[in-house]
Amino acid sequence: MEMTLRWFGPGYDTVTLSQIRQIPGVTGVITTLYDTAPGDVWSREKIRERKREVEEAGLRISGIESVNVHDAIKTGSEDRDRYIDNYIETLKNLGEEDIHMVCYNFMPVFDWTRTELARVRADGSTVLAYTQAAVDALDPEKMFASIEGDMNGSVMPGWEPERMAHVKELFELYRDVDDEALFANLKYFLERIMPVCDAYDINMAIHPDDPAWSVFGLPRIIINKENILRMMKMVDNPHNGVTFCSGSYGTNLENDLPDMIRSLKGRIHFAHVRNLKFHSPDNFEEAAHLSSDGSFDMYEIVKALYEIGFDGPIRPDHGRMIWGEKAMPGYGLYDRALGAAYINGLWEAIDKQHRKG
Ligand SMILES: [Mn+2]
Fold it and tell me: What is the homologous superfamily of the domain 2-356 according to CATH?
């Protein structure tokens, strides 16, 4: 594995590359071009400029999170081919610049959904949290307004104000899209992009839906072992792979995370590792990475990744807001750095134990 940190780029991230460079064991960043709209082609020049900046800081671009998939592709609308052509062009440009891992998601309307961005925990840290009761009581069109005040002035991925301004139209677009239609649209997209992925050795890594069930009546398909194996099978190419996100699959307590990891051997191209603390099956908050701070056995999760020979980029996922830091919720420096150090510690211990036999 390669330890990385997500970095949103200049002007969007409060964390600097020089700070990331000083986290022990972190050698790469996972980045994106936030200022390129979903559906537009990422130019060679912009990719090269980002690469130069990262490499000058002594790091490398270990992958992209995300190249967003346009709603025309997800809904299978008549103009989808034009957007897929653009996506292929972007992949080609990334490949030419020696970037070989692309995370994306196929979630309708909203990216991840949380109902609180700053729940206060017993230790005074603040975290993102979710309660089904709050979602059920909420008008989805007002979702953005309800969390906007807690964003610390940041633009959160998937919650861009320009996008949320059209949320009503987005719902309309997905009116006739059910799970089966979404699977079919995903298959169509993957079949069209696999040739360029083969040509440039680009690993596509789909991010699970978060939470891993339907919200606001929208279809959600990347939610459990059965569905993800169906997806691997429907386009059976090693470049069609997954981002294993423990915090997203873990929202559903019926998902056995180490078992899922083992069943995806060879197809996990990227790993997000974080912990959740459950108060009930539909009321949870994001905890520190340490097993005892949350509900997951992080040792078993990292061990499963180790045992399947996972060799892609891994990153700590959302961190708590601690030590007075003001940053994009989930994406401060301090707690993610602690998370990276902890995961590195687990990995080293598992590796040494394994070598001893
Ligand atoms: Mn994730």
Answer: Divalent-metal-dependent TIM barrel enzymes (3.20.20.150)
